Amino acid sequence: MEDVEVDEGEPATLEMCFASDTSVTVTWSKDMRPVEQGRRIKIVTDEHSSKLVIKKTVGKDEGLYKCSVQSGDQELNSSAELIVEGTL
Fold first, then answer.
1. CB 3.0–4.6 Å: which of 15, 25, 28, 79 could bond 70 by disulfide?
2. DSSP 6
3. Would you list the DSSP string of 20-81?
4. pLDDT digits over 28-68, tens only?
């Protein structure tokens, strides 16, 4: 994953790509806490990637996001920083 910088109020997408021949379990966390999906935040996962989409960013969205992909006894982790710039 790569760090993302957006202006407050703009959408943000963090994406984790992976390759697996078996089913995977994907979990997202922010600052060591599970990400809760809701009206603004969606997690979309297919067989090769998982995206965390924030429709309209606010200051509290800023932080370190981690995506964990588990397949059997193997686990892949990646993290990225979301930076939300304030509006003038």
1. 25
2. E
3. -SS--EEEEEETTEEPPP-SSEEEEE-SSEEEEEESS--GGG-EEEEEEEEETTEEEEEEEE
4. 999 999 999 999 999 999 888 999 999 999 999 999 999 99
Checking phi first, is residue 63 left (phi over 0); if not, alpha (psi -120 to 50) or beta?
left
Q: Which residue has the tokens 């990646």?
A: 78
pTM above 0.70, yes or no: yes
- Paired tokens of 11: 């959408």
By the 8 A CB rule, do 27 and 68 touch?
yes
Taking the alpha carbons at both ends of the chain, their separation in whole angstroms is: 29
Distance CA 57, CA 35 (A): 14
Structure tokens at 36: 């809760």
Q: In what order do the strands lie in the sheet with 41-45?
A: 12-17, 49-54, 41-45
